[in-house]
Amino acid sequence: MQILISEIKHWMTEAGEMIKTALLANQLTVDTKTDRKDLVTNVDKMTQDYFVKKIVAFDPQARILGEENGQDHLDKWSGRVFIIDPVDGTMNFVLERENFCIMLAVYEEGQGILGFIYDVMKGQLLWGGRDIGVFLNEERVPQPADIPLSEGLLGMNAAMYARNSHNAQIMGDRSMGVRMSGCAGLELMGMVLGRRVGYVSNLAPWDYAAGGVLIEALGMKMSHITGRKLKLDGRERFLAGTPHAYEEMLVLSQQANN
Amino acid sequence: MQILISEIKHWMTEAGEMIKTALLANQLTVDTKTDRKDLVTNVDKMTQDYFVKKIVAFDPQARILGEENGQDHLDKWSGRVFIIDPVDGTMNFVLERENFCIMLAVYEEGQGILGFIYDVMKGQLLWGGRDIGVFLNEERVPQPADIPLSEGLLGMNAAMYARNSHNAQIMGDRSMGVRMSGCAGLELMGMVLGRRVGYVSNLAPWDYAAGGVLIEALGMKMSHITGRKLKLDGRERFLAGTPHAYEEMLVLSQQANN
């Protein structure tokens, strides 16, 4: 496990340097995918290729699930699976040049074992797992207090909030305020660091795999917004929170009509 | 003018050090004002007192408008006025320990002359004015491109977005995405740095005075959301944007029923 962890940390920092270099050199080529707001850049693709090459060299048996380059679906979850989001928050990457991250999760036999979230521009690598705890760079992260919804900031998806899907607006009202950062990884990092009481969104597996391992390692909860287990297949309405806030939001979600 | 500028920069950085020291020492005492989400801390009050003392010593004739300590209204705008927000984004200050700023604006005869926004935790001081341009620390900030709404991120107020006030949701849909940071100063700093195409919110004078001077110095526009001039008196529905995006949003706002 130690070898695997130090190997992945090396990949994350090396990929971060590649991304910073490309940003500074203004070498971004931006394309759209499903619609005008669904962006991908040459840097997303290059970074995913980098990870795939490293993973294949390190563990040729492992499966890989990633956002880009047609690797976005898996039929089998047996053995070891690496889940990659080469640039999470691509819109921020392009328009803000900050507030994005690299994410990688390791699953074994369908269970999340390790998670890594790297805020490239801040130089903050959050990593850990169920059996080892969570660390920010080399400092252990304490378990956040189990605060109720009313005492924390709630990360929120804009479309769900606009439509009050699953009572998202009521969840927001009961919290100390909603925040929209445009980066799932940084919202989940915020939960780990005690800056968010929860997160409501519509996410693909690579958006929550790494952060999910980390929040669960610290006793926080996540599921489909209706309470069922996440399927790790396609986009799903996502709910996460401190145990206390999660239960409050789940009740609100189950009372909703839409 | 140079003496005034270097004096204020000195106050901003000194106040920033006081705030960081208080944060690190965990010396926050949090109270509520109008409701449970309207926070004020001992640090907001201490910082405003610091500025008031410095201003009175520097220019005893000047008037002062500030968020805290009962200095939140002015009858006369003649002569020189200092407008202070000692901690903008107090909720973030308390719950995130980042994403807040100190703001100061200088008005003369009712006109904004100088603006200062200090992102304390990032160590970024944005400052400038109509006649001198805008600087980030000591580097001149170029004029952002006059992009349309469809090409940029839109800073947004949660309550206005939830209720679709002034067609806020349609504005959001037409942009590249909405962002809610909980800090007006950082949203306006984002406009200056080309990371936001605009900002829609409900703001008091100290929330937009400094940022307003800076965005106008770079050719961007702001007004009440209906298009009339801001009154600098009490909370107002606020609209700002690149000239292109501002006009698009103003049309949407004027077409709205609420």
TrEMBL record, chains A, B:
Pfam families, sorted: Inositol_P (PF00459)
InterPro entries noted in UniProt: Inositol_monophosphatase-like
Domain of life where this protein originates: Bacteria
Cofactor(s) the record lists: Mg(2+)
GO molecular function, one term: metal ion binding
One record GO biological process: inositol metabolic process
Keywords for this protein: Magnesium, Metal-binding
Residues binding Mg(2+): E67, D85, D88, D207
Name listed for the protein in its UniProt record: Inositol-phosphate phosphatase
